[in-house]
Design brief:
By secondary structure, the protein is an alpha/beta fold. Helix 3 links the parallel strand 5 and strand 6.
Length: 253
């Protein structure tokens, strides 16, 4: 699609006092609205030079006729403190913001969640978000980076992601830590009835491919697409994106 035909605007999300920012890319006569949800950032690995991030993914979805939005959930850009329950609230608030554009409120809505963002997508749907379809990219059935010890989990998340953790959580992380098993994808999908597409790479070295099998087995309405040689960051995979677009084209009508 001619880039000049795409309307790009800021996505502003206010949740729990945090002013979160992102972007909405809208083509002429969009067929649906897609909200992209990122996973846990990596403080150890800088972005690849050819990685256009979620803005690039949003533009690709817009090129195929979808109004596509992305934003940084709390903690990722230093605004607010990271927690899973906070991310679920952020996603719900972003859904409302993404649909405020002219003509978007009446369009079918889909969530595309990458890795930990997949858990947030499933939780948002489980709690009543009006979505018609969900795509999970390399989502964990259960949390792979969390220790049984709450303080060790705080240390791991802080070092791995660079996101700030609230001082009261550092003092007593038990409630914060309990949010991880509470927000397990494998448990939540059992009550989510909307169609789900699980996309996973066979060589994923962060979330083993067996997690995809577990999610599909637990979900009442899920399909799986296994890819070769695409790694963990499926937002950088043109094959994963095209697979998702083809599937959404049959679900968002």
């Amino acid at each position: 699609m001619d880039p000049s035909k795409l309307k790009v605007s800021k996505l502003r999300v206010l949740c729990d006092g945090n002013r979160l920012s992102g972007e909405v890319v809208v083509p002429p006569d969009p067929r649906g609205v897609v909200l992209l949800l990122h996973g846990l950032p990596s403080a150890q690995h800088p972005a690849h030079p050819d990685d256009l991030g979620y803005s690039g993914v949003a533009h690709t979805f817009a090129d195929h006729g979808y109004a596509a939005a992305w934003f940084d959930m709390r903690g990722k850009d230093g605004k607010g403190f990271f927690s899973l329950e906070g991310w679920v609230r952020d996603a719900r608030a972003a859904l409302d913001s993404a649909r405020t554009g002219d003509g978007l409120a009446s369009l079918p809505l889909a969530l595309v969640g990458a890795s930990a963002g997949g858990a947030i997508a499933v939780q948002a749907a489980r709690r009543g978000a009006p979505v018609k379809a969900i795509v999970l990219w390399a989502a964990p059935a259960e949390w792979v980076s969390i220790s049984k010890d709450p303080r060790e989990s705080v240390r791991r998340i802080s070092e791995m992601t660079g996101m700030p953790i609230a001082p009261d959580v550092i003092e007593d992380p038990s409630g914060w830590h309990a949010e991880f098993p509470m927000n397990s994808v494998e448990k939540a999908v059992t009550v989510v009835r909307v169609p789900i597409l699980v996309v996973h790479s066979l060589d994923d070295d962060i979330v083993p491919v067996a997690h995809a099998d577990r999610i599909v087995a637990a979900a009442p309405n899920a399909e799986c697409r296994l890819l070769e040689g695409q790694g963990h960051q499926l937002r950088r995979s043109s094959e994963a994106i095209q697979t998702s677009l083809d599937w959404l084209g049959r679900r968002l009508r």
